[in-house]
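Input.
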Amino acid sequence: MSRQAPIGASKSDLVLRGTALAYLGLMVVLPLTALSVRAAEPGFGAFWKELTNPFAWHALKLTFATALVMVFINAVMGTATAWVLVRYSFPGKGIMNALIDVPFAVPTVVTGLMLVALYGPTSVLGSFLGRHGWGVIYQQPGIVLALLFVSYPFVIRSVQPVLLEMDPAEEEAAATLGAGAFTTFRRVTFPTLWPAILTGTALAFSRALGEFGSVVMVAGNRPLQTKTGPMYIFGEIESGNRDGAMVVSVVLLASSLAILIVLNRMQRHGRPVHGR
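Output.
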Protein backbone atom coordinates (compact mmCIF):
# COMPACT_ATOMS: atom_id res chain seq x y z
CA MET A 1 0.00 0.00 0.00
CA SER A 2 2.82 2.38 0.85
CA ARG A 3 4.33 1.85 -2.59
CA GLN A 4 1.10 2.32 -4.52
CA ALA A 5 0.54 5.94 -3.39
CA PRO A 6 3.81 7.28 -4.87
CA ILE A 7 3.14 5.36 -8.07
CA GLY A 8 -0.33 6.84 -8.34
CA ALA A 9 1.00 10.31 -7.63
CA SER A 10 3.76 9.85 -10.18
CA LYS A 11 1.26 8.82 -12.85
CA SER A 12 -0.87 11.86 -12.10
CA ASP A 13 2.19 14.07 -12.41
CA LEU A 14 3.09 12.49 -15.73
CA VAL A 15 -0.43 12.92 -17.07
CA LEU A 16 -0.50 16.55 -15.99
CA ARG A 17 2.92 17.28 -17.47
CA GLY A 18 2.08 15.45 -20.67
CA THR A 19 -1.18 17.35 -21.05
CA ALA A 20 0.54 20.70 -20.48
CA LEU A 21 3.33 19.87 -22.95
CA ALA A 22 0.85 18.58 -25.53
CA TYR A 23 -1.21 21.76 -25.23
CA LEU A 24 1.96 23.87 -25.59
CA GLY A 25 2.96 21.90 -28.66
CA LEU A 26 -0.49 22.19 -30.24
CA MET A 27 -0.95 25.90 -29.56
CA VAL A 28 2.61 27.22 -29.97
CA VAL A 29 5.23 24.78 -31.27
CA LEU A 30 3.28 23.34 -34.20
CA PRO A 31 2.22 26.73 -35.64
CA LEU A 32 5.78 28.05 -35.29
CA THR A 33 7.16 24.96 -36.99
CA ALA A 34 4.60 25.11 -39.80
CA LEU A 35 5.42 28.75 -40.50
CA SER A 36 9.16 28.13 -40.48
CA VAL A 37 8.92 25.11 -42.78
CA ARG A 38 6.58 26.90 -45.17
CA ALA A 39 8.89 29.94 -45.37
CA ALA A 40 11.95 27.75 -46.02
CA GLU A 41 10.35 25.71 -48.82
CA PRO A 42 11.26 28.00 -51.75
CA GLY A 43 14.93 28.00 -50.72
CA PHE A 44 17.39 30.62 -49.50
CA GLY A 45 17.54 32.47 -52.82
CA ALA A 46 13.81 33.07 -52.91
CA PHE A 47 13.81 33.91 -49.22
CA TRP A 48 16.52 36.54 -49.68
CA LYS A 49 14.79 37.97 -52.74
CA GLU A 50 11.56 38.49 -50.81
CA LEU A 51 13.42 39.88 -47.81
CA THR A 52 15.35 42.45 -49.87
CA ASN A 53 12.24 43.55 -51.72
CA PRO A 54 12.25 47.36 -51.14
CA PHE A 55 8.67 47.31 -49.86
CA ALA A 56 9.31 44.44 -47.44
CA TRP A 57 12.63 45.87 -46.29
CA HIS A 58 11.16 49.29 -45.61
CA ALA A 59 8.22 47.75 -43.75
CA LEU A 60 10.62 45.85 -41.49
CA LYS A 61 12.81 48.90 -40.88
CA LEU A 62 9.77 50.99 -40.03
CA THR A 63 8.49 48.31 -37.67
CA PHE A 64 11.76 48.10 -35.74
CA ALA A 65 12.32 51.87 -35.75
CA THR A 66 8.89 52.74 -34.36
CA ALA A 67 9.15 49.92 -31.82
CA LEU A 68 12.51 51.26 -30.61
CA VAL A 69 11.16 54.80 -30.23
CA MET A 70 8.23 53.39 -28.27
CA VAL A 71 10.57 51.39 -26.03
CA PHE A 72 12.64 54.43 -25.03
CA ILE A 73 9.55 56.46 -24.19
CA ASN A 74 7.93 53.58 -22.35
CA ALA A 75 11.05 52.84 -20.31
CA VAL A 76 11.11 56.37 -18.93
CA MET A 77 7.40 57.04 -18.55
CA GLY A 78 6.55 53.52 -17.38
CA THR A 79 9.18 53.67 -14.64
CA ALA A 80 8.02 57.14 -13.61
CA THR A 81 4.40 56.00 -13.48
CA ALA A 82 5.25 52.96 -11.36
CA TRP A 83 7.27 55.21 -9.05
CA VAL A 84 4.31 57.56 -8.57
CA LEU A 85 1.91 54.69 -7.89
CA VAL A 86 4.17 53.10 -5.28
CA ARG A 87 5.80 56.07 -3.56
CA TYR A 88 2.94 58.59 -3.42
CA SER A 89 -0.61 58.66 -2.09
CA PHE A 90 -3.17 60.89 -3.81
CA PRO A 91 -6.90 60.97 -4.57
CA GLY A 92 -7.87 58.69 -7.44
CA LYS A 93 -4.80 56.46 -7.10
CA GLY A 94 -6.91 53.30 -7.22
CA ILE A 95 -8.67 54.44 -10.38
CA MET A 96 -5.33 55.32 -11.99
CA ASN A 97 -3.95 51.90 -11.07
CA ALA A 98 -6.97 50.22 -12.67
CA LEU A 99 -6.83 52.34 -15.84
CA ILE A 100 -3.28 51.18 -16.53
CA ASP A 101 -4.58 47.75 -17.54
CA VAL A 102 -7.20 49.15 -19.93
CA PRO A 103 -4.96 48.66 -23.02
CA PHE A 104 -4.97 44.92 -22.27
CA ALA A 105 -8.77 44.83 -22.36
CA VAL A 106 -9.56 47.19 -25.25
CA PRO A 107 -9.55 45.61 -28.73
CA THR A 108 -6.68 47.01 -30.73
CA VAL A 109 -8.96 48.15 -33.56
CA VAL A 110 -10.92 50.18 -31.01
CA THR A 111 -7.60 51.65 -29.84
CA GLY A 112 -6.87 52.83 -33.36
CA LEU A 113 -10.36 54.25 -33.70
CA MET A 114 -9.97 56.20 -30.44
CA LEU A 115 -6.68 57.68 -31.63
CA VAL A 116 -8.20 58.66 -34.98
CA ALA A 117 -11.11 60.32 -33.19
CA LEU A 118 -8.71 62.29 -30.99
CA TYR A 119 -5.82 63.06 -33.36
CA GLY A 120 -7.41 62.63 -36.79
CA PRO A 121 -7.14 65.42 -39.39
CA THR A 122 -10.79 66.42 -38.85
CA SER A 123 -10.59 66.49 -35.04
CA VAL A 124 -9.97 69.70 -33.09
CA LEU A 125 -6.61 68.54 -31.73
CA GLY A 126 -5.56 66.86 -34.97
CA SER A 127 -6.35 69.89 -37.10
CA PHE A 128 -4.48 72.15 -34.67
CA LEU A 129 -1.39 69.93 -34.81
CA GLY A 130 -1.67 69.65 -38.59
CA ARG A 131 -1.69 73.43 -39.03
CA HIS A 132 1.59 73.57 -37.15
CA GLY A 133 3.18 70.78 -39.19
CA TRP A 134 2.80 68.08 -36.51
CA GLY A 135 0.72 65.50 -38.30
CA VAL A 136 -0.02 62.41 -36.20
CA ILE A 137 -2.65 60.21 -37.80
CA TYR A 138 -1.67 58.65 -41.14
CA GLN A 139 1.93 59.57 -40.31
CA GLN A 140 4.72 57.68 -38.56
CA PRO A 141 4.12 59.46 -35.21
CA GLY A 142 0.66 57.90 -35.21
CA ILE A 143 2.25 54.46 -35.35
CA VAL A 144 4.42 55.25 -32.33
CA LEU A 145 1.38 56.59 -30.49
CA ALA A 146 -0.57 53.41 -31.16
CA LEU A 147 2.33 51.25 -29.99
CA LEU A 148 2.67 53.35 -26.83
CA PHE A 149 -0.98 52.76 -26.00
CA VAL A 150 -1.04 48.99 -26.52
CA SER A 151 2.26 48.46 -24.68
CA TYR A 152 1.65 50.98 -21.90
CA PRO A 153 1.20 48.49 -19.00
CA PHE A 154 4.26 46.32 -19.59
CA VAL A 155 6.98 48.43 -17.97
CA ILE A 156 4.69 49.65 -15.19
CA ARG A 157 3.57 46.16 -14.19
CA SER A 158 7.15 44.90 -14.33
CA VAL A 159 8.63 47.69 -12.21
CA GLN A 160 5.78 48.13 -9.73
CA PRO A 161 6.26 44.85 -7.78
CA VAL A 162 10.01 45.48 -7.47
CA LEU A 163 9.38 48.93 -6.04
CA LEU A 164 6.86 47.50 -3.58
CA GLU A 165 9.39 44.94 -2.34
CA MET A 166 12.33 47.35 -2.12
CA ASP A 167 13.65 48.13 1.33
CA PRO A 168 13.82 51.93 1.64
CA ALA A 169 16.64 51.61 4.19
CA GLU A 170 19.33 51.77 1.49
CA GLU A 171 17.86 54.94 -0.02
CA GLU A 172 17.57 56.48 3.43
CA ALA A 173 21.18 55.57 4.19
CA ALA A 174 22.34 57.19 0.95
CA ALA A 175 20.39 60.33 1.78
CA THR A 176 21.89 60.35 5.28
CA LEU A 177 25.38 60.22 3.76
CA GLY A 178 24.61 63.33 1.74
CA ALA A 179 23.55 61.86 -1.61
CA GLY A 180 20.99 63.90 -3.52
CA ALA A 181 17.76 62.49 -4.93
CA PHE A 182 19.21 61.94 -8.40
CA THR A 183 22.41 60.33 -7.08
CA THR A 184 20.41 58.06 -4.79
CA PHE A 185 18.23 56.95 -7.68
CA ARG A 186 21.19 56.42 -10.02
CA ARG A 187 23.43 54.58 -7.55
CA VAL A 188 20.93 52.76 -5.32
CA THR A 189 17.45 52.49 -6.83
CA PHE A 190 18.14 52.13 -10.56
CA PRO A 191 20.45 49.07 -10.29
CA THR A 192 17.64 47.26 -8.49
CA LEU A 193 14.98 48.36 -10.95
CA TRP A 194 17.06 47.78 -14.10
CA PRO A 195 16.18 44.07 -14.57
CA ALA A 196 12.47 44.85 -14.22
CA ILE A 197 12.73 47.77 -16.64
CA LEU A 198 14.55 45.54 -19.11
CA THR A 199 11.87 42.87 -18.78
CA GLY A 200 9.06 45.34 -19.37
CA THR A 201 10.70 47.01 -22.34
CA ALA A 202 11.59 43.68 -23.95
CA LEU A 203 8.00 42.47 -23.64
CA ALA A 204 6.73 45.78 -25.00
CA PHE A 205 9.15 45.61 -27.93
CA SER A 206 8.09 42.08 -28.80
CA ARG A 207 4.46 43.12 -28.57
CA ALA A 208 5.05 46.10 -30.83
CA LEU A 209 6.66 44.01 -33.57
CA GLY A 210 3.40 42.17 -34.19
CA GLU A 211 0.89 44.96 -33.61
CA PHE A 212 -1.64 45.23 -36.42
CA GLY A 213 -5.13 46.23 -35.28
CA SER A 214 -4.37 49.69 -33.91
CA VAL A 215 -1.62 50.49 -36.42
CA VAL A 216 -3.75 49.72 -39.47
CA MET A 217 -6.22 52.37 -38.30
CA VAL A 218 -3.67 55.15 -37.77
CA ALA A 219 -0.92 54.45 -40.31
CA GLY A 220 -2.65 55.02 -43.62
CA ASN A 221 -1.15 51.91 -45.29
CA ARG A 222 1.20 53.84 -47.57
CA PRO A 223 4.05 51.70 -48.97
CA LEU A 224 7.54 53.04 -48.27
CA GLN A 225 6.06 55.55 -45.83
CA THR A 226 3.70 54.17 -43.17
CA LYS A 227 3.32 50.47 -44.01
CA THR A 228 4.67 48.32 -41.16
CA GLY A 229 5.65 44.65 -41.22
CA PRO A 230 2.29 43.23 -40.03
CA MET A 231 0.46 45.44 -42.54
CA TYR A 232 2.80 44.26 -45.28
CA ILE A 233 2.07 40.64 -44.35
CA PHE A 234 -1.67 41.22 -44.55
CA GLY A 235 -1.34 42.98 -47.89
CA GLU A 236 0.79 40.23 -49.41
CA ILE A 237 -1.66 37.55 -48.26
CA GLU A 238 -4.50 39.53 -49.84
CA SER A 239 -2.59 39.86 -53.11
CA GLY A 240 -1.64 36.17 -53.20
CA ASN A 241 2.09 36.53 -52.45
CA ARG A 242 2.25 34.02 -49.61
CA ASP A 243 6.02 33.62 -49.87
CA GLY A 244 6.59 37.32 -49.24
CA ALA A 245 4.20 37.26 -46.30
CA MET A 246 5.91 34.18 -44.86
CA VAL A 247 9.38 35.73 -45.08
CA VAL A 248 8.45 38.90 -43.21
CA SER A 249 6.48 36.81 -40.70
CA VAL A 250 9.51 34.65 -39.98
CA VAL A 251 11.75 37.69 -39.46
CA LEU A 252 9.32 39.23 -36.98
CA LEU A 253 8.77 35.88 -35.27
CA ALA A 254 12.49 35.14 -34.99
CA SER A 255 13.15 38.62 -33.59
CA SER A 256 10.47 38.28 -30.92
CA LEU A 257 11.58 34.77 -30.03
CA ALA A 258 15.23 35.83 -29.77
CA ILE A 259 14.29 38.71 -27.47
CA LEU A 260 12.32 36.42 -25.18
CA ILE A 261 15.08 33.78 -25.08
CA VAL A 262 17.77 36.36 -24.27
CA LEU A 263 15.51 37.90 -21.65
CA ASN A 264 14.85 34.53 -20.05
CA ARG A 265 18.54 33.71 -19.89
CA MET A 266 19.39 37.10 -18.44
CA GLN A 267 16.75 36.66 -15.76
CA ARG A 268 18.02 33.20 -14.88
CA HIS A 269 21.60 34.44 -14.80
CA GLY A 270 20.63 37.44 -12.68
CA ARG A 271 18.76 35.56 -9.98
CA PRO A 272 21.77 34.67 -7.85
CA VAL A 273 23.05 38.25 -8.07
CA HIS A 274 19.69 39.67 -7.07
CA GLY A 275 19.44 37.26 -4.17
CA ARG A 276 22.74 38.29 -2.60
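Confidence is low (pLDDT under 50) at residues 1-7, 271-276.
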